[in-house]
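During the second half of the funding period, the structural biology subgroup turned its attention to how the target accommodates small molecules. The most pressing case was zinc ion, which had performed well in the primary screen but for which no bound structure existed. We therefore specified the complex as follows and requested a full 3D prediction, including the ligand pose.
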Amino acid sequence: MTVSPRAIHLSDYLPYTHLVEEVALVFRLAPKATRVAATLRLAPNPARPGRHDLRLDGENLRLLSLRLNGAALECAPDDTGLTIPAAHLPDGPFTVETEVEIDPEGNTALEGLYMSRGMYCTQCEAEGFRKITFYPDRPDVMAPFRVRVEGDLPVLLSNGNPTGQGTGWAEWVDPWPKPAYLFALVAGDLVAHSAPFRTASGREVALNIWVRKGDEDRCAYAMDSLIRSMRWDEEVYGREYDLDVFNIVAVDDFNMGAMENKGLNIFNSKFVLASPETATDDDFARIEAIIAHEYFHNWTGNRITCRDWFQLCLKEGLTVFRDQQFSGDMRSHAVKRIEDVLLLRARQFREDGGPLAHPVRPDSYVEINNFYTATIYEKGAEVIGMLKRLVGDEGYAKALDLYFTRHDGQAATIEDWLTVFQDATGRDLTQFKRWYTEAGTPRVKVWEEWDGATYTLTFEQENPPTPGQPEKGAKVIPIALGLLNPNGDEVLPTTVLELTEGRQSFRFPAATRPVPSILRGFSAPVVLEREVSPEERAFLLAHDTDPFNKWEAGRALAKDLLARMVTDGAAPGPDWLDAIARVTFDETLDPAFRALALRLPGEDDMAATLHAGGVTPDPARIWTERRRMAEALAKRLGPQLPGLIEALAEPGPFTPDARAAGRRSLRIAALNLLTRIDGGRAAQAAYRAANNMTEEVGALVALLEAGAGQEELVAFEARWAKDRNVMDKWFALQIALAHPDRAVGVTEALTRHPDFDWKNPNRFRSVIGALSGNHAGFHHASGAGYRLVADWLLKLDPLNPQTAARMSTAFDTWPRYDADRQGMVQAELARMAATPGLSRDLGEMVGRMRG
Ligand code: ARG
Ligand code: ZN
């Protein structure tokens, strides 16, 4: 990475010069000219002795007036803020009043105060508050807020508790000191789906989910998820809610998933609204997880926040870890773990192995919005999972209790977090800290030896170089191990080995040669390398007692096979086909697990695996061979598929619970295979018969993957044209599943569709993001996929740099491919880099990817 002069470094951290003792804001809303009056009560910060200028951040603000202790002050802002020289400031506390004008309607970046289809809303994390008023916009400045909103709209919301309202105005007080990134305001013609909640200690809380009229019948699942999340946090972490109201608002134009603003969470509407007719089982599961995630931030993020943005994983890694625990408790831990690892490998391992690799706690950035990544979130959660494994459940519980008591009300660091664990458990975490400071996915090689009496496992860890970090030390790697004897009985139940050195051996008494089950539950985010025969993999798939490793054995079998099909034209043999067939029809297993076992390795995953093994991946060939693999499986299972589909039909009305969803997922997986050999008859019938979105989409996907489905696409569009969230699926599916030679053409055609509202991030992602997710289409040898995606990123960037930058990660895998593709990607990156006026967001991403 070329370190730009504008890069910000962790090592430069200094506390803010002043303390903000109170903030009072008055908003007079108008689409093109909203007035924001701010009164800040400030005092010198004893942590920064001496006299200092007062520097307030501010961007795109028209300053109308400025007063210091009530007296007008002439002081011109610059591009990034406003400085009041120390000479003007009194020694003690003082008050600064500003009034500014902003343009919410002209705000296409969706950061700060903006409008989404007639409603006002905000997104302030990470640095959006500076687009609302002049303020020290940094997370370690925490203050109580009072807000008055004036506007000609029926619902006027802000953080905290309501303290008064009348026609055209409302007042809110948030007693909990908070950083500005947690500020929120919403105004609109909204209706609430409401429910009461009583906390463990008896506080009555009014819960409201605010949506547009007509959407109120799609809030029940989100509300149910919220209530279960609140209860769970009380029961599992002892954390209660701390205000009289908890509001959630669904917004159609949103850059991310959702935001944990204190007492006023704002959500991308696709992660709130759900009914059986419009949402798939995956949508229901994601809504449950994201509602929980944002709610859990109330303690891990809001009550205890981050000292600076380098500490982002302090709140995000922990909150993802907590939402994963919650989903596991609500559903199935085994299935949840497999799904989380699939996602970790697809996103985080990919990021960690390419030019965008960065530590869980980075030490520099140009644009912080570029660091809301799979590494900060998902690897951040994995690191906590390892910590919990190393200190045990009791140690973890003690450490978390100490964390909440010691740091409540503070802006903390990763050092604070690790110190809490050291103090609570006595464990030295010096070496463990490398997980936070060093990027890259460790590779762990394993050898085994058995001499008739002792079984020895030898591990070797390698920590590959990443941008800016050529050399790394050995990490602490918890390896959960079990041993089976040759008849399939477990002879060593799960035991955690601690790998702390570059090379280390562990010995076990064994009178017969055992079969090892290594890295159970995916106990560390590493790549395990071990020579294993297909027989041994099939044995583990049949006998392992650890559900993750049981699934992993089947996945490894499939990946080995697909790799051989791609590299030397091997054909799918009975070892894999029979093993998968046994799992598919094993009624003692959870249907959701069986569906996961049937899922073939993804194309991008295969490309990464081939590359790691020294083979240059050919995307078109991976696509063809993966199809051939699915067809072979379809033929092998074929005669039994109709019976399986029949047996899994749910008689009663739709319920979104894990049991019913698991049955549907296996049923749809079976239908998908059957569609490859029956000419599409079963899927066409299933499409017509579907009475819920899961089956409607499942049948449509099966048809599209088989190269059919055109009639169904027409019917789908006719039925759902008015429903944005559903239509996003319609756009995305036909691009993501298009034949590689047609993906670019289909995308281009859909960009001319009248409903391709490209300024809406969800729609943009559904079209342009779907193309970059079509591996063989995006990496088409013509280079047309690269060109089209780059064209659209350049078009979006001036309006919405955050989303453009985020989607540019499509290009981060170029080093894996052949010289032609590398050259074409480099040319697109160079073209983007040379574009005048490129945003800091996209500029940083492109710069890092070029290397
Ligand atoms: N804190 C939010 C969450 O994880 C994400 C907000 C990210 N926003 C951004 N502009 N990068 O729930
Ligand atoms: Zn979060």
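Two results from this model are relevant to the next phase. Residues 139 and 308 are 6 Å apart (CA to CA). The pocket of zinc ion (ligand 2) is lined by residues 293, 297, 316, 319 (CB under 6 Å).
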